[in-house]
Amino acid sequence: MNRSLRLVALGLGILLASWSLLFLTTLRLIPQNLLLSLSAYAASLAGLFLGLVGLAEYLRTHRLP
Questions:
Q1: What is the largest CA-CA distance in the chain?
Q2: Rounded Cα–Cα distance for residues 32 and 39 (Å)
Q3: CA neighbor of 18 nearest in space, from 54, 49, 42, 50
Q4: Which residues, at least 6 apart from 26, have a Cβ–Cβ distance to it below 8 Å?
Q5: Any idea of the CA torsion for 55, 58, 59, 64, to the nearest 10 degrees?
Q6: Cα distance between residue 7 and residue 49, in whole Å
Q7: Which residues contact 43 (CB under 8 A, 6 or more apart)?
Q8: pLDDT class of 63 with cuts at 50, 70, 90
Q9: Among 15, 45, 11, CA closest to 3
Q10: What is the distance, to the nearest Å, from the Cα of residue 14 to the centroid of all Cα atoms in its chain?
Q11: 11: Cβ–Cβ under 8 A, 6 or more apart, which residues?
């Protein structure tokens, strides 16, 4: 697997982890904490950024004619 697809997969994994953490907090299975919420939000932004960078790199290297 090349670098761009690894970045997309890593970004997707981080996004899913942060969303599931926030979902479990909403269901009150995990106690609500300001630091936890802020770190999940930051992880969500980082995962989105990594995914977009990986997608841009993939499209740059696999350009259609």
A1: 52
A2: 12
A3: 42
A4: none
A5: -150
A6: 10
A7: 14, 15, 17, 18, 21
A8: confident
A9: 11
A10: 4
A11: 46, 47, 48, 49, 50, 51, 52, 53, 54
| Look-up of token digits 């977009």 | 52
Contact 63, 30 (CB under 8 A): no
Here the tokens at position 41 are 């939000």
The whole-angstrom separation of Cα 7 and Cα 50 is 6
- Tell me the pTM: 0.84
pLDDT in tens, 1-55: 799 999 999 999 999 999 999 999 999 999 999 999 999 999 999 999 999 999 9
- Could you tell me which residues come within 8 angstroms of residue 61 by beta carbon, excluding any fewer than 6 positions away? 2, 4
Q: Which amino acid type is present at position 4?
A: S
